[in-house]
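> tool_call: predict_assembly(chains=two)
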Amino acid sequence: MNKLSTESYKGVRDFYPEDKFVQEYIFGKMRKVVEAFGYEEYDASILEPTDLYRAKSGEELINEQVYNFEDRGGRDVTLRPEMTPTLARMVAKKKRDLGFPLRWYSIPNFFRYERPQKGRLREFWQLNADVFGVEGIEAEVEIITMSYKIMRELGAVEKDFIIKINDRDFINFFLTDFNLSEEEKYKVTKIFDRKNKTEVSKFENEIEEILGDKSNVFLNKISELENAEGKTPADIKNLMEKLEKAGITNVVFDPFLMRGLDYYTGIVFEVFDTNPDNNRAMFGGGRYDRLLEIFDGEKVPAFGFGMGDVTALEFLKSRDLIPEYISLTDLYLCILDEKYTEFTDDLAQALRAQDINVVVDYSYKKIDKQLKNADKKKVPFVICIGENEVKNDKFVLKRMVDGKEFEVSRGEIKTVIEKI
Amino acid sequence: MNKLSTESYKGVRDFYPEDKFVQEYIFGKMRKVVEAFGYEEYDASILEPTDLYRAKSGEELINEQVYNFEDRGGRDVTLRPEMTPTLARMVAKKKRDLGFPLRWYSIPNFFRYERPQKGRLREFWQLNADVFGVEGIEAEVEIITMSYKIMRELGAVEKDFIIKINDRDFINFFLTDFNLSEEEKYKVTKIFDRKNKTEVSKFENEIEEILGDKSNVFLNKISELENAEGKTPADIKNLMEKLEKAGITNVVFDPFLMRGLDYYTGIVFEVFDTNPDNNRAMFGGGRYDRLLEIFDGEKVPAFGFGMGDVTALEFLKSRDLIPEYISLTDLYLCILDEKYTEFTDDLAQALRAQDINVVVDYSYKKIDKQLKNADKKKVPFVICIGENEVKNDKFVLKRMVDGKEFEVSRGEIKTVIEKI
């Protein structure tokens, strides 16, 4: 018989219960924060018409990174590489019925065809939280505050990360003097976007290719912004002050920050890990007031962010913040002989009716093997059912963490489990 | 500007918050039941190597219904149409480290290329719960009990559904006299599987094509089983008795029940809606003791079931059991003028620190529009912030369900919200 491989597809993950536990821990912190700010959960299919991404997601994503294919009916479909186009589509579709401001979140999965590496896989999950219908800086303050709070909920201290902010309009503003075509302007933002991953000389050459001998003037103006504190633009200063009032001080202005996606229109931000071994963008977001235009020509102010599970997990690992696995099962019942099964099932059913999660070992293996399995599954309490238990309806409740035993009657099991 | 469609891909769903709420309600009931029985959550990627399904999932699924394509590296990949092969792969991979009995569950999504119709879509979610390492009928009892309990948790009464059970070995047992090839036997199970959807004469003709003039003898033997109570096979009788002891009496034996998938080896079951307008299988499961052989040649006893969200939703709709939307947000803060924003933000932050979920309306629209939005989002309480509130730190808390108003100080908000 031909043996089949047990490997998953390249660049995706299997989530064994202990992995799923950590992922749910991260998702739980995300949910807690965004729900505290009144965000409602939505979802959609991972499969979308490819056209949805052609308009605004950026060439690199569509041409090199998406998983797209023809379905059996000849439709060009894509496994979503990000959520914002889907979200914009859904909001545009029911715009007349939805109430604004509208706050939505989701924790969907995405696919991108990339070379798998640390912190980057072909499939990842990502919290997306977006607010529609808020024109003012309040949206920026709220979303960046939530980003900050999620990091704190995950156990990070302020010095573990830094929040970089910029306004994509600056670059356009400074470029107005240079008489460039839209395409040339677009190219400049792309060069900026790659700046962190590019050598200085190469970066300067690329800018010079487009701006010619005026490139120095342009670059000087941009970096003046960064270095001269007095020159920080008013909207950035305002945002930083408001964040400071909310207790968030690890914020810096970075005029070179662009973020890759084409639909951003104003303020963008990115959260960086300050670990010198891992100094890179973990996640971020921005304003995209014009994205909904692609559906019906109408603008809707929008600001949102996305935070992926792979980078969050890497961060937690590097800071030793991964929580220990906790079983949701309260009690493990071992059976000493098949003739006690019916009694055990009755007991299990009675306890489940009291909201105790009970697992029964029907393997009829030797008792030490059953105990070992209870230990492996990290179930905190064990009761073994044998002749005495059936006769007297009295039980020995064993606490697995220290082996301590408690004699209990049937009616006491719930109370003792909850107390100790 | 070319306008983009707001439609989703055909046969999949957008989940607006009210839809997501209902889906999470169903998932919550599923989780509650399986966790009470000690099942641990796992997950995996929706993308799998196509080879995984070639071995055991059945020809129809692979050739006509799966979404498969070549990735950019030339690998043949499939959007999973079911979970069992993935689960078997994961269990086989770490078999030496995992403790048995092993109880796992997951609520993944699947894709099947089918003509979208009532109760059947191209993408659906499905609870999968499986127990490995239990050879005896205890596994069947437990899984069928969980199926029953989920139906009851969702609000069904016993007469709303019926549980049909069978043993796939019967058909093989009765076929031993007919000297058939494996392929012919396989064809007979497929004809049985389609019986409910086939006219009687066509069904009989199909059987006759394979069994010749002995087909009558064969069919008579099978239906004798069904009709003569005394002849119910011992293992089915045993299972039905044990279920009855657990309080489950809506169980019948159906010797024609097969379930489509090729990997089932013994007992199979299906839960049917008894609604005469909707009399069809909603979900089911079975034993597949030999599936893990495809990885390493070793058997592992296994029994599991899957319950989809689309059929569950149709059932709830037909029985008027869909719950009303409940907002997770506790309080909606309206702002009467921009100058009160800072005060409002401080109040919101203080309440969130007390675990109250607070949303702030930064639209600065007229107050009736803000109240209308709070109502649309079904947030149960509203406070409006204006001059008086800022001056006195006293608030009017409005209960939206009846418009009743309560005067509260800052410190009283949490208590009053939780009490009323």
